Amino acid sequence: MSRDTSLADFGTSEGDAEAESEGEESPVEAESRTEIGEQENAEVESGVEAESEREPRSDSIGEAESSADSDADIEPALATYDWTPGGVACECCGESVERRWRDEDEMVCANCKKW
Fold first, then answer.
1. Which of 20, 39, 74, 94 is the most buried (most CB within 10 A)?
2. Where is there biased composition of kind Basic and acidic residues (predicted)?
3. Do 39 and 66 have their domain in common?
4. 28 is in which domain, residue-wise?
5. Are 112 and 103 in contact (CB under 8 A)?
6. Residue 35 phi, psi (nearest 5)
7. 5-59 pLDDT tens trace
């Protein structure tokens, strides 16, 4: 729709209501669908251009294996905070607390955490 669309264009006319009841598309819906289709086509075309500008990919087995090896070297993320409703011992002082934070390799209470 254009920027100067009136509120009447958003309403449902009798012809639109009949078309909807018969399973047909209203003129407003058809125009909207056409605009969306043109937008998607433009995005696809720009993506094709961008892809053609890239360097060619090499899908050799050696690269795939080295990628898998480098993934094995990645350490998983660790939680920085822990909340246990019943309480759990601080790994530094041993006091039972509900909230603990990561400090180096331990989960410690607020008093033991080096802020």
1. 20
2. 51-60
3. yes
4. 13-74
5. yes
6. -65, -40
7. 777 777 766 655 555 556 666 666 666 666 766 766 666 666 655 555 666 655 5
